[in-house]
Automatic annotation (TrEMBL):
Pfam families from the UniProt entry: FAD_oxidored
Taxonomic classification: Bacteria, Bacillati, Bacillota, Bacilli, Bacillales
Coiled coil feature spans: none
GO terms for MF: 4 iron, 4 sulfur cluster binding; metal ion binding; oxidoreductase activity
Keyword Zinc-finger recorded: no
SUPFAM superfamilies for this protein: FAD/NAD(P)-binding domain (SSF51905)
Name this protein carries in UniProt: FAD-dependent oxidoreductase
Organism: Paenibacillus thalictri
UniProt keyword annotations, A-Z: 4Fe-4S, Iron, Iron-sulfur, Metal-binding, Oxidoreductase
Superkingdom of this protein's organism: Bacteria
Amino acid sequence: MRYLEHQYDFVVAGGGISGVAAAVTAARLGLKTALVQDRPVLGGVGSKEIQVPMVGAHSIDGNYAYGRETGLMEELLLENLYRNPTRTPEYWDLTLTDLVKKEPDLDVYLNTSIVEVQMNAEGTRIESVKGYTIGAETWHTFHAPLFSDCTGDATVGCLAGAPFRTGAESRAEFGESLAPEEAVATGMGSSMQFRAKDAGVAVPFVKPQWVSFTFNEEDFGPYRPIQSFRRDHGGYWWIEWGALYDPVHDTNRIKDELLQVVYAMWDYLKNRSSMKDYLSTFVLDWVGTVPGKRESRRLIGEHLLTQVDLDSGIVFPDAVAYGGWGYDDHPSTGIFGEKPTTYHVFHDAPYNVPLRCLYSVKVENLFFAGRNISASHVALSTTRVMLTCGQLGEAVGAAAAMCSRDGCLPKQLLPAGKLAGLQQQLLERDHYIAGVPYAAAANVAGQAQVTASSELVLGEWMDSAGVKRLDNDLLQMFPVVTERLETLTLLLDASEATELAYEVYGRAKGDGNVPAEDSLLTSGRLALDAGERLLAEIPVAAAAGQAGWHFLVLKRNPAVCAHYAGSAPVGVKDMYGLPPHEIHANRNWMFNRSLGSPYQTLCFAVSPAQPAYEAANAVGGWDRPVGLPCLWSSQPTDFAVPEWLELAWEQARPVQEVQLLFDSSLDINLNPIAYAGTAQESDPRHTIPALVRHYRLLGRASADEPWRVLAEERNNYRRNRLHRLEDGPAAIGQLRLEVLGTHGLNRAQVYSVRVR
Ligand SMILES: Cc1cc2nc3c(=O)[nH]c(=O)nc-3n(C[C@H](O)[C@H](O)[C@H](O)COP(=O)(O)OP(=O)(O)OC[C@H]3O[C@@H](n4cnc5c(N)ncnc54)[C@H](O)[C@@H]3O)c2cc1C
């Protein structure tokens, strides 16, 4: 046996996405960091061992379109898309591994399980944690002033005597309408994934003798859609079981029974189901060996996040991250239950998570991130998705770095001055906190006069690229910045004379992207003759609701087809109405979030024209659409002549760095692992078409001097670019960003230029 002692600034236990994010962020901010992971790979439930795709605030068709997590999560997903357009688990693993390996201040200990905690004499702080490396006969003791428990099971907190909760609270305890009437001891279960492939020859499947279950058609009922099996499918997420056992100590039993479920299901599919002929040549290609856990312990912080918090739209003073995936609770009876496999209730807008939910109320130097944060069962059902967990990890990493710099404990970050510093540091890393703009004092971009080669104005929008029949209600979102809204004009085909009902709304619900019911500006019916390419004018003639999203609703009419355009600007988006759904109760609209056709929208014109894409937006402090597009967009161009954005100050000033935040289409879904590989293989794009590909940064002290090239990038595929100007001019009075090309879009689109 070998015994090693290590001293670090920060030790992170658990290498799921929350632990990876906490460790990488802290290391980048200068902390000597250890990431200790008990598996041979990183990524936790999203790893190649378990293969669940990461989702987040925007990922399900819902009420919030531009919600993709930026910051470290965006860096990771864009990198993965670039290297791994077919989103195969092996390449995703490489992307994750590269992320940690390139950090000089980060040491990763794989196959190492934290099993002991040494507390100080008072029992208030962790002094060290001890882990054993399987296969290396080695014990490690990690000493540090700060720790983070990202184990999912809250193992470190539990060993340290930190209080935690399990199961579901009663409705009365926190006034949560989605909680069960009575508290229950069980939560959500675990799952095992599988993939199958076509071997090209008939292959039998003999159910192993030790598999005690036998499934038949009646066992699945309406809520477990076995027909959703597809070639290369990543398995059925609803193969869920184990919630009735102890999710920590019964892990092996849960694994054993889940494996039996998988093989019994495959036996049914291959040997008795209606798909048996189709599947006769299919073999199991991969079966998970580690159960993915949804829920076990939740550590208690200084605040416990509840449904009431999340529904209130509160911007906590200590908000450090956000979420937006709906409440997604699963019954503990899992695959053997008769209830739906999930109840999904959607948010109208993103919510915030406060720092106080990310450190222990009792163990003073213990942070936590991931699914074991301080939340009720109902709140966990939305915060638990991986991109939200990753963001929580990023917030913890930055908070740990601030504690280390200031020699303080997590709770000592709460005074307003420190908190604002932490929030701005996170925003500087392109992290997003709902309701908090970037306003760092060091950024002088806001003091500049901003001009551009051209600015997009939303007026005529009639470049038809095809038609959609109005088989469902259709919602068209668009930005309005003028005081009045006079008309909207559509390009329609009608197969017979008909009337088309419409409504126009002047405001969104919260910070979301669906209309507030009480903001109706007008409604009516358009009389249409039979014909093609009819210009149909909707009279609004009203004071606009307020500067922000407005909405046109076209009611279902299968006699009408609406023309659509192929190059919609940010914030111009159409969504289909959805019929009432038993499980997705309050999901009314579905928007396109596929990389395959990202910029389709209705052909329409708005009068008066809307100057919503001005150059000044690039220094406004918002880096995604918040109520308005919030970005500079040029007019359409072929980039034969570069588009440019220029910042000019009255006096030249020393500039150390310039940060650029490009549009990367935050409404597109970028799961790093595809559930259905085939869908992605048919569109192996590896960048976002809107992203600026080729750009130059130019600077000079005054207009009398020639421009100097400060930086040039010819193959950019990232949203967040930081250019340090060590060799640049001592003083800059004028700064120009030249855009020479994108990855496909015919406009230059930039959220922010930050100058420090
Ligand atoms: C089957 C399933 C389907 C899901 N579907 C989705 C989905 O589609 N999209 C989505 O985004 N989310 C989904 N979720 C939720 C999401 O995967 C989890 O909530 C999320 O992974 C939690 O992240 P985490 O970092 O806290 O924990 P984990 O991903 O569980 O990572 C924790 C890591 O810590 C390690 N660890 C544990 N104990 C120790 C120890 N003592 N020492 C060292 N290391 C330790 C574990 O091995 C693990 O690798 C799903 C979850 C499950 C189980």
